[in-house]
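Q: Could you predict the 3D structure of Transcriptional regulator?
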Amino acid sequence: MDIKIIKNEKEYQVALARLELLFDAKIGSLESDEADVLALVIDDYESKYYPIEAPDPIEAIKIRMKEMHLKQTDLIGVIGGKSRVSEVLNRKKKLTIDMVRKLTNRLNLSPELLIHDYKLN
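A: Sure. Here are the predicted structure tokens for Transcriptional regulator:
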């Protein structure tokens, strides 16, 4: 096992190809250990050169609603009345701290994700 920090795109592609070969290695084997270390090195490179930004709060809510098979009406009482839910999800009104607290519990989303600023329509 000769793994080094990935410094460029070519090394990244080689590392991905190697990881693909090792992907189904038996747990506890040398190949499995190599795959684990290689995955960490790849993750480090990807976080630097291919960062994935978190969705804005409203998109995060909509994504979680879809995952949980929820409708806007399911958020009545969490965000407010029917019209307030619509206003928030259509970016006409901003989330309040109280809404963030309730959404955190109802949708199991992190408060850090929900407190980010976003644009209104």
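Q: Anything worth pointing out?
A: The mean pLDDT is 95.
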